[in-house]
Amino acid sequence: MTRHIISVLVENEAGALSRISGLFSARGYNIETLTVAPTEDASMSRMTIVTTGSEDVVEQITKQLNKLIEVVKVIDLSEAEHIERELMLIKVRAGAKEREDMKRMADIFRGRIIDVSDNTYTIELTGDTRKLDAFIHALDQASIIETVRTGASGIGRGNRVLRV
Amino acid sequence: MDRIKTSQITGAEIVVRCLQQEGVEYVFGYPGGAVLFIYDELFKQDKVRHVLVRHEQGAVHAADGYSRSSKKVGVCLVTSGPGVTNAVTGIATAYMDSIPLVVLTGQVPTHAIGLDAFQECDTVGITRPIVKHNMLVKDVKDLASAIKKAFHIAATGRPGPVVVDIPKDVTAAVTEFHYPETIAMRSYNPVRKGHAGQIKKAVQLLLEAQRPMVYTGGGVVLSDASSQLIDLVRTLGFPCTNTLMGLGAYPATDKQFLGMLGMHGTYEANMAMQHCDVLLAIGARFDDRVIGNPAHFAQNPRKIIHIDIDPSSISKRVKVDVPIVGNIPDVLEDLLKLIKSSGAKIDEKSIGPWWKQIGEWRAKDCLRYDRKSAIIKPQFVLEKLYEVTRGEAFVTSDVGQHQMWAAQFYKFDQPRRWINSGGLGTMGFGLPAAMGVQLANPGATVACVTGESSIQMCLQELSTCKQYRLPIKVINLNNKYMGMVRQWQQFFHGNRYSESYMDALPDFVKLAEGYGHRGVLVEKPADVEPALREAFAAKNELVFLDFVTDQKENVYPMIPGGKGITEMILYEDL
């Protein structure tokens, strides 16, 4: 069982997302995260799916995705050099006592404080999944009020591209 | 309101015009509120004929049988809500067997969608996992291209059913009609040609084989590759087996044919599958009813060449060595060209011992049964059916023991003659499918092999048969049991026949007569052949033959679920 990050170009049509998520549940494939938004060409969306499975299962996943009529192209980004990023917004306790420490911690992880109240900070943090996990672990768990993550987006390095 | 331009027509008329453009002969359907405008347009023309079924499941099975026996796309029309949910079993049946259908479904008006309107259901959502593709048409301007796309997608690549959901207001709205000649989709371009390098590798393996085997499935039938298959198998001199879905693609009476393989396949076909050194799989998918336990299958090393139009069928259950993705007739022609031009002769000597081994397996005579029985044996009925119809009938079946016996004992020499629900295993398929077959092949002999349990699942279609004067011959193998369930309960559940006995069966003779047909009860072996002869002589009449058969008969050989392909229970073992 290894982690794979799969990129999918799909026609931006109603129901395309449920077709893809339905495929994963119907065939018992894992989805760890799934992100989707239109590309520079509004008629097409790009999806990044993080999944785990054996080589055979991941091969089936890419084949089954390709079989969907609305899917234009599929690649397994993790087969070669690639970059992935995820955005996290995390609201933490930041009363008079914790304020300094929390600011320093955000700086260490190159996070930005984007909202401040009397007793909270909201920190924006971007990075790969492991970095976001590390930030969460570095905090005192009791200080975390709310976490929201986008799931990973990925892109191939250098000349490796996914487009029509 | 603007005055309607004369060149503008309603969505309903567009639907009917599209069907005319596609050359659709028959639409199988059932009217209802959401499709009334479409029915009104059907009424005004006579090019596209409508067949009124008695239940929407019957409409889809009939369109399915029509398609399987005619190479054309089957078309259905049903209303929203219950019309759709009733059609679901039929759609799933077609999907599992890759049958090209276009299913037009009515939907509540666009402004009512999502408000739990009367007869509303999420058609696109409900059918999503059981279609090749589906779409909801929200704008009348998109209607013609949606229908064109539906026919294109249904019939190309690996075929399958496509649902087009049309809200009622879209059928009332008007626009100019333009039916696209062709359709181009950047996201959908099925391949045709196989990879030349892979084909070369395949030829090399085939020519070096000492224990070769050719295993073919429904894909050969669907792609009309039968003549290329026969040419290839005869050129190579190899043994050939067909799956349940593939029967008829290679002539069953040919000496190189080893019979059907799989759970109820022949001893020789299953043994040869396990012990071959090179396996050529064509349009087949190594499913659980065919190769049994994949771990057991993998115990014997062999090189596998797999030709299929659908890449996801390759290396799904069994790893293959030489995958070739492409349209089967194209790939087989390329293979043949290479084999013939190579000048290589198949070394009779090298595969001689293999044929000798196969001869020994054949000598087991694995399909034998008690021919002296005083009670009618179901196998006997099927042998006689084959004789009486001279092997030329279209045979549809339901699901269960009778289906397996029909597959074993009716020797299909041509493709598209054996029409059954192989993938989904839908009881109730046989009779409505036979209606579609008969309409697609007027004047042809059509037999529906069924059992007393299956036939009751779509029995209402006897009424449709009367309305359209379809002279189908129903061969009812009546043992008062859900025979296959009973067989499993005998073998694997300690003879506890839980709910598999069917009490209070109708008098099928009277029932057939009630629907305006002829019914005949056959109780003795000696009456089987005369009854069949008389029934098939009645060219313009549906005859329902109710055969009282042996309750304890089982289908042999049998690979128990989860067991290996050679771990067969044989008649003689018991």
Give the key terms.
heterodimer; A: 164 residues; alpha+beta; five-stranded antiparallel beta sheet; four-stranded antiparallel beta sheet; 4 helices; 9 strands; 41% strand; B: 574 residues; alpha/beta; six-stranded parallel beta sheet; 20 strands
Question: Can you describe this structure?
Answer:
- The complex is a heterodimer of chains A (164) and B (574).
- Chain A is an alpha+beta fold.
- Chain A has helices at residues 16-26, 55-67, 99-108, 129-138, and strands at 2-11, 33-38, 44-53, 71-76, 82-93, 112-116, 120-127, 144-149, 153-156.
- In chain A, the strands form 2 sheets. In chain A, strands 5, 6, 7, 8 and 9 form a 5-stranded antiparallel β-sheet that branches.
- In chain A, strand 2 and strand 3 form a beta hairpin.
- Chain A starts with a strand and ends in an 8-residue tail after the last strand.
- Helices cover 38% and strands 16% of the residues of chain B.
- Chain B has 574 residues and is an alpha/beta fold.
- Chain B contains 22 helices and 20 strands.
- In chain B, helix 6 links the parallel strand 6 and strand 7 (161-167).
- The relative contact order of chain B is 0.11.
- Chain B is globular and about 75 Å long.
